[in-house]
Write a structure and sequence with these properties.
- The chain is of the alpha/beta class.
- The protein has one domain: 3-Layer(aba) Sandwich (Rossmann fold), CATH 3.40.50.
- Helix content is 34%, strand content 24%.
- It has 4 helices and 7 strands; from the N terminus they run βββαβαβαββα.
- It has a 7-stranded mixed β-sheet with strand order 1-2-4-3-5-6-7, with helices on both faces.
- The longest helix is centred in the N-terminal third of the chain and has 13 residues.
- The chain is globular.
- The chain starts with a strand and ends with a helix.
């Protein structure tokens, strides 16, 4: 496992790289709950994605700046610091328009244009399905 320079973030590469592309597809998971984040990293890397992780919005923006090939941002809403998941998603959508954004929360939210919402606790297979749909543009 490779550690990035952002505090608390790691780059995880799965040995079973996604066969749909010649290069691994990169997902950034943003979650302040370490156990939930670890579970997300595990099921996404097991599914063949390259995974970056961040524990808050500021860390996520830093990782996005340094990793322009991130294809999906999968974020929680309630996180410590000045950037919650909605603000992070809004900023990321403007700065990286290619980025598919999935927000997970235990609370129902109004849908934001171009952003997918999934209720927590998330079914890992449903998250993987959503990411693959965004990879192929079949949403």
């Amino acid at each position: 496992m490779e550690h990035s320079s952002a505090i608390g973030s790691r780059l995880v590469r799965s040995p079973s790289i996604n066969s749909m592309t010649t290069a691994p597809f990169t997902v950034l998971i943003v979650e302040d709950d370490e156990l939930v984040r670890e579970l997300g990293v595990e099921f996404l890397s097991d599914a063949g994605f390259q995974v970056l992780e961040a524990s808050n919005g500021q860390e996520a923006l830093s990782l996005l700046e340094r990793n322009p090939k991130v294809g999906v941002l999968f974020t929680d809403i309630n996180m410590p610091g000045p950037l919650d998941g909605i603000t992070l998603a809004s900023m990321a959508a403007v700065k990286w328009p290619h980025l598919a954004i999935i927000i997970g929360s235990g609370k129902a939210l109004p849908l934001l244009s171009g952003i997918t919402f999934i209720r927590k606790p998330c079914d890992p297979e449903r998250v993987i399905q959503l990411i693959r749909e965004r990879m192929t543009g079949s949403v």
